[in-house]
Amino acid sequence: MICGGCRLLMNTDCSLHCHTCDINYHYECLNINKEQFVSLSTEFRSSWTCPACVNVTRRIKTNLSTPVRHNQVPSTEQSMDLSCEILNKSEAHIPSDSVSIEKFNELLNTINLWRNDIKSNIMSIRDEIKNDMNSNFMSIRE
């Protein structure tokens, strides 16, 4: 039997069998450590799906293009449910801090107004300082 990940011969005692494509994998090739592999239930092993099949099934009728998870097996404190059910579009979460183009343009205009106001104030202060210095130099010359 050949591993679908590394293409080397393998022992069936140290492998997971994909129920979708019938390919076997070393648990090491799936980034699973020995403790995690031993803790997997028989039910989980019999219904396990390989990364390639998970990737294909996740993209059916969805706009998700997320690659397969880094670690296929959860740590012991996580649940063992690794089903790849497709999320409903209604469950998609849009971050509350997202900004529309209109809002962005409004903010940009406000910033530009502030910038122009600050520039005008700085120019006015510069002119005042320049006039004060000129008058002081004139008084020194006299």
Automatic annotation (TrEMBL):
Gene Ontology MF terms in the entry: zinc ion binding
Residue ranges of every copy of the Zinc finger PHD-type domain listed in the record: 2-54
Keyword Zinc carried by entry: yes
Entry keywords, A to Z: Metal-binding, Zinc, Zinc-finger
Protein name per the record: (apollo) hypothetical protein
Naturally occurring in which organism (per UniProt): Parnassius apollo
